[in-house]
Amino acid sequence: MEFTYTLVVLSACLLSYAHAAAFNCSEPPNLGAFDIHSCCRMPEINLGDAPAKCSAYIKELTTQMANMNGVGGSKQTENNKNMNNQNNPDAAAVEYPAYAHVCYAECMYRETGSMVENEFNMDNVEKFLNKSVSKGDKDIVPQIVRSFEACLNNIKGHLEAVGIKTHAKLPMGCSPFASLMFSCVNAETFLNCPAKMWKNDHNCNVAKSFAAQCNPLPHVPLPTANWLKP
Ligand SMILES: *[C@@H]1O[C@H](CO)[C@@H](O)[C@H](O)[C@H]1NC(C)=O
Ligand SMILES: *[C@@H]1O[C@H](CO)[C@@H](O)[C@H](O)[C@H]1NC(C)=O
Prior knowledge:
It is a single chain. By secondary structure, this protein is an all-alpha fold. 53% of the residues lie in helices and 2% in strands. A two-stranded antiparallel sheet has the order 1-2. The longest helix is centred in the N-terminal third of the chain and has 21 residues, at 50-70. It binds 2-acetamido-2-deoxy-beta-D-glucopyranose (NAG) (2 copies). One 2-acetamido-2-deoxy-beta-D-glucopyranose (NAG) binds next to loops. Residues 1-20 form the signal peptide.
């Protein structure tokens, strides 16, 4: 009897600790100077020549952009004109992540076969991870695959809800889809980090509880509907 009672009280305490008093999402916990990236150790991945190729591609884009701006916009593409369209104030560039980040993420997924013709290919994602994640870190692969699936379903669901099939592209030809997925997959994997790769300390656990409560899927702000129009 007493034993049962103790168990009940103990699990009630554990539960309330695990759900540690709801956060006020406008007030992130102050964890001082602490590196959240150290909480879920990232696996070693052999990315082959993809980073070098994609850096070169970004350099090339940067040169193209500089040339575009240098000739008073006369070489602006259709997309670029739309971007500056006065009737489309939501399309302010400030709402948007910098193109280098967006285009780099897309390039990396393309070069690793994860993205084919602007769609994620889950079979290729899994094959790439199976092949490229180092032996000692293979435990995290099924979670990364689950994160991809969760993020893909969620982001696609949001698009369908607003009646949009494809993402608009930036003037330089990349769409934000890849970098949204990249951020979402990282955040989802952080929340579901395998115990083996998780640093079980106070700051990391608080950061995770806060993220779980206050930053649900897709974990990233999606561009506004205007931006998503093809
Ligand atoms: C949450 O924090 C914000 C910003 O400090 C404050 O304005 C708001 O009243 C708080 N909400 C609750 C429910 O305490
Ligand atoms: C990846 O590896 C897992 C575990 O070995 C295996 O079950 C799965 O079929 C592999 N996936 C692909 C796409 O090769």
